[in-house]
Amino acid sequence: MSPHRLAGLPAGRRGKYAVLLLWLALLVAAGPLAVKLGEVQDNSTLGALPAGAESSRAVQRAETAFPGSRHPLAIAVYVRDTGLTPADRARVDADRAAFAAYADGGAVSPPVASADGRALLLSLPVSLDDERRADAVGALKDRLADGAPPGLRTALTGEAAAEHDVFDAFDGMDGALLLATALTVALLLLVTYRSPVLWLIPLVAVAVANQLAGAVVYLLARHAGLAVDFQSQTILTVLVFGVGVDYALLLIARYREELRRHADRHAAMAVALRRSAGAVCASAATVAIGLLCLLAADLPATRGLGPVGAVGIAAALLAMTTLLPAVLVLCGRWLFWPFVPRYTPGADTRDRAADHGVWRRIAGLVAGRPRAVWLGTAAALAALALGIGNLGLGLPDDESFTTEVGSVAGQRLIAAHYPGGSAAPAEILAAAGTADRVVAAARAVPGVAEVGAPEPSADGRWVRVPAVLAGAPDSDAARDTVTRLRAAVHAVPDARALVGGRTATLLDEERTVNRDNRVVIPLVLAVVLVILVLLLRSLVAPLLLMASVVLSYAAAMGAAGLVLDALGHPRLFVGVPLQAFLFLVALGVDYTIFLMTRAREEVARIGHRPGVLRALAVTGGVITSAGVVLAATFGALLVLPLVPSVQMGVIVALGILLDTLLVRSLLIPALTLDLGARTWWPGRLARRSPRPVAAEPALART
């Protein structure tokens, strides 16, 4: 079957029924599987590092030499500002006895007193099993909150408590995010179409696509080892809804246009599919292949996001080019009520821009002084980019949540009464015969507050040495100290020393992200450039578009810097810039693809200048609506209680709005007009004279 016949299948008189039956069967099969997606969610990769990172090698050595060392710690903190009383100490002793029931192996550390006599710490390892660990941490929190002496402040912190707080915060958030996204999309579709019925069709289609995507991701996770975590599952929902509705808006706009030219709605849909398929498929390919570029990342959480997102894009593309057209054709023109597009004889010779009054005037404005327009727009974007100075990189642990949680409160209590790194000391693993020299080297490192006694392994080959840092575990000072500590212990002959721990993990994470930025960002740009060259059959236009993408990203980060600073979250999680770059490049360039593919079609008919202006006029409304919808779906991430999600939502939403309202509406059309037909070099449009047309659009003569 030819591509044209395949594309026209959903528009066929009998084909639409076959498509609907196929989707009904898919939905019946996919629904139960999509519900199970949470069962295969594995969040261990969220904090994981490549196996070659020193902190990862330290964990591996510790697991081998010190069985049970993987168990995450829960740390109970007790503080009385006026000094601990005998009743307080009795309560701590009672808690220690009770905590033994929840400690793996029954081991609870003796109380560790602060130098000021106002605080005590108890630490205990908890189970590696997710369910048992969650139950244990919940019981520890209940015990601390129950019956403490008046005036004694308590909190549970440590790795186990922080993990529990994350999952507590996200409990029920999948449903909340889905509801927020669906309501946002529904409202925007209602405003866009001003029809009591039409808005429901793309919403239902995208919901079906979301079910299909969830089912496929579930099967890949269950049987092909695909890594899925709550981050990638969250992004999956946002991508399917946002991108799916974008494709729906584009197709419905083209279908409405063709309904005025064809008496038969099946013929109108067939033409609409053929003429919009190139832009939609190019858009989907850009986003999906861009997401798959994340497979080149070393950070597991970033790498796992790529395939999950690509599945979502493929599901959205499939639903919007098969299910949606079939439903639209089946229902007929009445779906558009009260603005039903009627067949108008002679519509082919009528100026297509005449029905787009606002965007026709905008096109006329751009046509009047194109150089001034693109220079002014570029200057505005460059000015926005200055806001990047408000952003920092490296989100402190105590700023990771949008609300106060117990593990963060505990960290702050510890920081007020103990050396900054007491809750998460660095861990040195070295050959047993070099223990004394390693300890001496560690004690000489500036920023190391205390070095503990070496603990030998059961086989006598290794020792484990705790080193308390003076700075907070997530501070820049602590990272610098770990860098110096590693250099010092690596220099001890035959020690084979490794430094792990929380700060070492953060340091290695930062280095891994920097490496991923250097590799993935150029790869994404190269992939998008190749797709644009193949789509537009030009070199000049794709290079202009890529330059606009980079400028738009810088402006988005600057605008987000202003907003996030006002919200109190200016320090970015290390993985946010790369992921935001990917989404803004792959998704933001979509709108330019929609514009430029239509421009190429019109330029071939009526020439460069009138063709570009007509493309801007007829696509302006639908692309703006698509951009607002996509920005709003990413904005739904603000309902999540984690600061990295809020940061991602703000950056991507602002970036998409800038792409939609400035880059695609003003910068690109004005640049294209100023450059002239050379935009399409070396393609044939750069040297081809257009065929005469009956009537050149009036906006082209403004």
From TrEMBL:
Residue spans crossing the bilayer: 175-193, 200-221, 233-255, 276-297, 309-336, 372-393, 519-536, 543-564, 576-594, 615-640, 646-667
Localization (cell): Cell membrane
Keywords: Cell membrane, Membrane, Transmembrane, Transmembrane helix
GO cellular component: plasma membrane
Keyword Membrane: yes
Keyword Zinc attributed: no
Membrane topology: Multi-pass membrane protein
Domain SSD: 198-330
SUPFAM superfamilies to which the protein is assigned, alphabetical: Multidrug efflux transporter AcrB transmembrane domain (SSF82866)
InterPro entries on file: MMPL_dom, Mycobact_MmpL, SSD
Gene3D superfamilies (UniProt xref): Multidrug efflux transporter AcrB transmembrane domain
Stated family: Belongs to the resistance-nodulation-cell division (RND) (TC 2.A.6) family. MmpL subfamily.
The protein's name in its UniProt record: Putative drug exporter of the RND superfamily
Organism listed in the record: Micromonospora chersina
